[in-house]
Structure formats: C-alpha cells, structure tokens
Design brief:
By secondary structure, the protein is of the alpha+beta class. The chain folds into four domains: 76 residues, Arc Repressor Mutant, subunit A (Orthogonal Bundle); 40 residues; 80 residues, SH3 type barrels (Roll); 75 residues, no CATH class. Helices cover 40% and strands 24% of the residues. The chain has nine helices and eleven strands. Strands 7-6-5-4-8 form a five-stranded antiparallel β-sheet, covered by helices on one side. A hairpin with a 4-residue loop joins β6 and β7. α4 runs antiparallel to α5 and α8 packs across α9. The longest helix has 20 residues.
C-alpha cells in the first residue's frame, strides 16, 4: 500500500478514535497511530479541511490541538469506524483459519483469540457456517521441512515425481525454500542420487526428520546434464514453453540439455509428433518402444 493510501486510511480511523478519546494528548495520539507528532499535526490540519459539501465553517470539522491536546466536534458523518467489505472479511477469515492450523498446541491463548475474532467476523458478515481453508501441503510436511532447515538436518520424504510418474522414498538435506510460477519448491541435496534436486512442496506426500546429515557445501554443486538433440516438426507455443526455446526453427536440429532422462522422454512423448528426438540413442529407443506399445494397445482395442 502506498503512503497516500496509508494516510487516507489513518485519517478515516482518526475521526472515530477522537470521538471516543476527547482531549487526548497529541504525543499519545501519535504513538497510538505509530507516527511522529509532526506527522500527526499534519494529519489533523488535513482533517480541519474536511467536511460536508458546502465546505463552510458550518460544515467543516472543528478540531482543537494547538494546546497539545486534541478534541473534535462536528464530525458525525465520519464518527463510525471503517467497515470491511464481504470479500475482505472472507479473506480475513481464511487467513485466521490458515494461522490457526499452524499454531502449536502449547498456545491455547492464541487459538482462543483467533476463535473469538472469527466468531465476531462471522456474525458481522452474516456467514452461516465456518469458513476454513485446507492447505495444499500438510502441516506435518511444512513443520518437518522448517525443522530440517533450522537444524541443517536430514529429511526422509515420499515424493511423487511427474517425470517418472511414481512415488519414491529418499533422504534429502534441505538447503532452501523458494517460490516459482505460483508454486513453492524445496532445494535439497538428495543422498539417494548424490546430487542437488528441486522438489515441489505440494508433491511431497510425507516428510519426517531423520538423523542423517551432510556438509552440502562440500558436495557437487552442479548436476551433470544430459545432452540431447531434437528436430521441431511444427511450431507451437507448447513446444516453445516445454523445451524453453525462444525461436522455433522448423526442420532444424537443436541441441539442448536436461538433468533428467525421464523428463526428456516424457516431454518428447507429450509433444505428440511435433518434435522428433534425434539423440541420445537410448532415450530415443525408449520413446520408440513406448510409442509402439501405445499403438499396439489401440490396435488391439
């Protein structure tokens, strides 16, 4: 939110607050709104110029604060606190529910405070049922990851790999969490493959802290890439995005690289004939065998 919007919100909050705190000290008022006394004086001067249409002394707000104490009169139109919209209220309820699911069991005071605020918002919005949010990732997984990152410890995970289309169990040493394209990823050193890998958090089926540990700074930082060549048969946006190619020269051979042979195989299959894999020969053969197997199944049907 920009500074002008913050100031506008503060001015709208000032009027009802002053109506219930007549004669408050200027310094105390500034401290309550977390601004300097000079900024508060500027805000009060701005309020002095606000009022109903006509904007004569009869319609403008009447404030006194020269003595260091603030009083306000003739501000009935803005005497009530700001209200929230239905959408804002729903967002607050969802946020409270999300926070409540992450609180530890030893903080019943926070849970009670959230429940109290939730009940007030539900009544204010007229929502007949409890609004809740179900996180994509379980708290068990996120808590285990957070603990492993803090302690530089190991993590035993069950992960669904789309490249292999299977759930594998492996031990990793978490290094970092980051966001990309609307998803959260875990960068970790995989003790199974002895290399760095990126794991999408919502594809981690389970995670448990383990006693495994490793000095990841001493491990190989860059996994060995697999070189492969393709020929684009038909230009399309799907091919450009899938293989990260800015220019699509149809009919020309392109040399690319990937960390995963399974990814190369599945991507070429998903391209549906718009891409031909030229090399390496073992992956090309695997693509040919799978394509033939699929063809045979349709033929038999």
């Amino acid at each position: 939110m920009s500074a002008p919007l913050l100031r506008t919100a503060r001015l709208l909050d000032l009027v009802p607050y002053l109506n219930t705190h007549q004669g408050i000290a200027l310094k105390e008022l500034a401290a309550h709104f977390d601004v300097t006394p000079a900024q508060m004086s500027a805000d009060l001067t701005t309020l002095w110029m606000c009022g109903l249409p006509g904007y004569t002394p009869l319609e403008l707000m009447d404030l006194e604060f020269e003595s260091g104490y603030v009083t306000i009169r003739n501000a009935t139109t803005l005497a009530k606190p700001r209200t929230i919209t239905f959408q804002e209220g729903i967002a607050l309820l969802l946020g409270l529910d999300s926070i409540a699911t992450t609180l530890p069991d030893d903080r019943p005071d926070l849970i009670d405070a959230i429940n109290s605020l939730r009940q007030r918002l539900t009544k204010l919005l007229g929502v007949p049922v409890k609004v809740s949010v179900v996180p994509i990732t379980s708290t068990e997984v996120t808590n285990a990851i957070a603990k492993a990152l803090t302690c530089n410890g190991g993590l035993l995970i069950k992960y669904h790999s789309l490249y292999k289309d299977e759930v594998s169990e492996r031990t990793v040493i978490p290094v970092d969490l980051y966001q990309s394209n609307g998803h959260q990823y875990l960068k970790a050193f995989c003790l199974t493959s002895r290399d760095y890998r990126q794991f999408r958090i919502d594809r981690i089926a389970s995670a448990k802290n383990s006693t495994e540990s490793a000095d990841v700074s001493e491990q190989k930082m860059d996994p060995e890439k697999i070189s492969y060549t393709i020929t684009v048969q038909k230009s399309s946006r799907d091919v450009a995005e899938r293989f990260a190619i800015a220019d699509l020269p149809v009919g020309q051979s392109l040399e690319l690289s990937s960390f995963s042979g399974q990814w190369i195989e599945r991507s070429v299959m998903a391209a549906g004939g718009t891409v031909v894999l030229n090399s390496p020969s073992d992956i090309r053969e695997a693509v040919r065998n799978k394509a033939q197997l699929m063809f045979n199944r349709y033929k038999d049907a």
